[in-house]
Amino acid sequence: MRLLTIGAFARAARLTAKALRLYDELGLLPPAAVDPHSGYRYYAPAQLDRARLIAALRRAGMPLAEIRTVCGLDPEAAAEAVDGWWRRVSADTAARGRAVALLVDQLTERSTTMSETTFRYAVRCETGAVRDSNEDTAYASDTLLAVADGMRGPGGAAASTAAVDALRPLELADAPAAELLGTLADAVAAAERTVRAHAAGEHRPVTTLTAVLRRGTQLALVHVGDTRAYLLRGGELSRLTQDHTYVQSQVDQGHLTPAEAAAHPQRALLSRALGAGAPVEADLALRTALAGDRYLLCSDGLSAVVAPEALRATLADAEDPETAAGRLVELAYAGGAPDNIACVVADVVAG
Predict the structure, then answer these.
(1) What is the pLDDT averaged over residues 181-201?
(2) Whole-prediction pTM value?
């Protein structure tokens, strides 16, 4: 049987040699053979399935101790164990979200120091210059901002629309601000179930989703994929989301620079999206709304074409959201508009 060197096996499994050495030390994935003189590890091709399972579970955030248990089960029992673990994680996330919301509420003393706020907003969703269909969805109201980018092909547009529509009942929900993150996490889980329901045969549409839900002076942010959220405050532009893409993971690990990632041929390859693979873990965050803030939510049809400084200057110079959104779309078209363009610009104003 031909064995693979640790380097070749790491490349095939999309792991690092460092990770493989750790999994060996923990007894999760011992090599098939070890050179008695050099100590060099060798792996069998048949071990790739186990390595990929471990890698997938690590990306999902499962602790190594639980991964060891899952790897010792048959596929059906392993699936049940993973599902049970995810349910516990979701419940814990919701509970922590409520605790954080209460803490933020106390620290900001919103009842005595802050007035109610609302959004003043503009929405644009345009077809790219070289596209014959548009799978993006953009939506805004005085309580909800959302942008989704469906995978190109059959079902992509329906998936992005379904993801946003699953959040819209929250506009009228009478949930207290302290439960914002938990409420939003539940809605995203419902959104993913809806997106998965659009699967037909082997075709499984997926979509990204970035949204902001407002309750009084509190904002809950949810994010999956490579749609983005930005905040302009005091003339400074901050990016609030981290892309869930292969190239971003390479940047995080130090294998690529941001400049190399921006030009990488696989820059659009998603590592997380609604409807793809295992149940997705959304990024959740809580913020305090301040009058004068300006938010931008957009698809990569804008962020991949218009440089951050141009985004900042446009958002800072425009008098109102409608003007800002229009100018941003113009910049995307000036850059060739190779992809569809969805954006929401919203100002936080005193209510």
Answers:
(1) 84
(2) 0.66
